[in-house]
Amino acid sequence: MEESKLIEIIKINPASIKTIKHPTDEMKLWAVKKDGLLLEYIDSPTRELQELALNNNTRAIKFINNPTEEMMIRAVKAGWSNLQYIKTPTDEVIKLAIDQAGWAIQYVEDPSEALQLLAVRKNYDALKYIKAPYERVQEEAVRISYEALRYIPLPSLPIELMAIKSNEAAVKFITHLDKPKMLECLKVNILVTKYIEREISKDELEDVLKEVLSREDVEEKYVRDFLNCAVINRNSKTLPIDKMMFIDQYGSKTVKKIAVDEKLKMI
Prior knowledge:
This protein has helices at residues 3-12, 25-34, 47-56, 69-78, 91-100, 113-122, 135-144, 157-166, 179-188, 193-196, 202-213, 220-228, 243-250, 253-266. It is mainly α and 267 residues long. Among the domains are: 1-65, no CATH class; 178-267, no CATH class. Helix content is 51%, strand content 0%.
């Protein structure tokens, strides 16, 4: 068949390039102009063909063996997920992809602490794509959202407590929640009681409260949360405690002052 006719066919159906044994340069040009991903079927493409393919579809970067950094940047700017198609991305290209979406870290082999931090700061749940996150990276993710705890297979106790302090609901993501850990959680966030009220005794809770509320440096939020915690009250079947009486007996001067202020608000 004449070349001109083949070119017309390619213009209508660029995929037909796959069936042509020895396509001419012009045929190749028309094919990738129409569909950049057809670069896959062109042997030893020239740089011009690669550029044309990339102009049509940035995912064509997948079929460019030695792309220039400019090509890589163009592909990643068009979509962070294109990073997966680049075999040896430069640091600039990696950072550019992660800066668009932290999830791009999944396409980075053995990422540094700096790159991991960049990823979780962009999207805290990018943590799920990091096989061995640094402790500092875990802290950063949990600081942004307590829900990041669910993506850490074996978090340290300080990391767990950081999440609990931020939001008592984080207790749902602690897989090995034994009694000692429950009590440690209560020391940083008394509202955890609503999730574990049937797992602890009144005496255990009182021991925790005596330790925390006797301190002068106790956080104001902790005291107010204790006073407003619906699970703990003198009529409770599980955790019956007269809060004001308890504070009067065991609370520090700071705690008593906060309690009086909170009581006045309730009047």
